[in-house]
Amino acid sequence: MPSNTTALIARGATMGKTKLFGKPMAINQTCYGLVANGVNLDSIFQYYYFLNNYNLLVSISHGSVFNTVIGSGLKNLPILLPPLPEQQAIAEILGTLDDKIELNRKTNQTLEQMAMALYKHYFVDFGPFQNGEFELSEYIELNPSVTLKKGQVAKYVEMKALPIDAMSVSPSEIIEKEYSGGAKFKRFDTLFARITPCLENGKTAFVDFLRPGEVAFGSTEFLVLRAKRGVSPYWVYCLSRDSAFRSFAISTMVGSSGRQRVQSEPLQNWLMQKPEEGLMDLFQSHVKNWFGQIEVNSRESQTLAQLRDTLLPKLISGEIRVRDIEKQIAEKL
After folding, report:
1. Where does the pLDDT of residue 152 fall: very low under 50, low under 70, confident under 90, or very high at 90 and above?
2. How many domains does the chain have?
3. Which of 9, 85, 84, 82 is nearest to 40 (CA)?
4. CATH code, domain carrying 117
5. The whole model's pTM is what?
6. Which residue among 34, 59, 128, 306 is the one 20 to 30 A from 105 at the CA level?
7. Segment (H or E) for 116
């Protein structure tokens, strides 16, 4: 049961994957826990060292089905270390970038929770309602018509890129390729997984990574939800996270086991109480800045992650020194 700051290295199926933990924890036989002695090896530098030196771990692994990192090889692995003060400086620089990325993630999580709480207050629990109900199709376009020519290069999002418990797709998960088919979408659309188990797992995203008018495409296994005129796109996203709506979507699924899909027609007929006149605009005015800040934070985190990934091998190898980049880092934070 390692204590102190511990670097965990996966030894089996995800061989070489490395994580850092700063509290006591239990581990099983699928990974190794490495605790630096703090005398000639800094614990956080150790984590970044192995994060950067995956090939070293490959060199001490073997296996018939999949490679496994061998403990004896890890113990006897020769590594070149800079002096401890330099290790600590490198760890401080890289750790500061990761800390800011994590802070942005937590801030975004809080902002989204605030938006969901307001959505529930206005539209689920205590909101003023008109008499009557509305169907989903009155407020939302499902898989709206979008033009994208075959062979045109555009941003592409696959199913695995859709987050489970967050709003934004990580920019690192977005690629560009020629359009050859798939769901097409624009800025401020909501992407909603329609296949099991992706829907049950929560895969949903708000499209905040496109320029106005830009068209992207993605998996045929998610539905595109677009706010109609006068409807807040932020309301559409919050609805897509509403447990009642998700339960109804799951109830429409048909197909063979493991390949069940949401059916568009019954989903469009989902009934909800009509909100009072002006409530949608009021909700929009409250949450617009929150969603905007989430977008800003996500973009900043991507910039910081790219900077970290650029600096990591250069700092570890000694190609650049901490003192040479301190001003550059300070300008980014």
Report:
1. very high
2. 3
3. 84
4. 1.10.287
5. 0.85
6. 34
7. helix 84-120
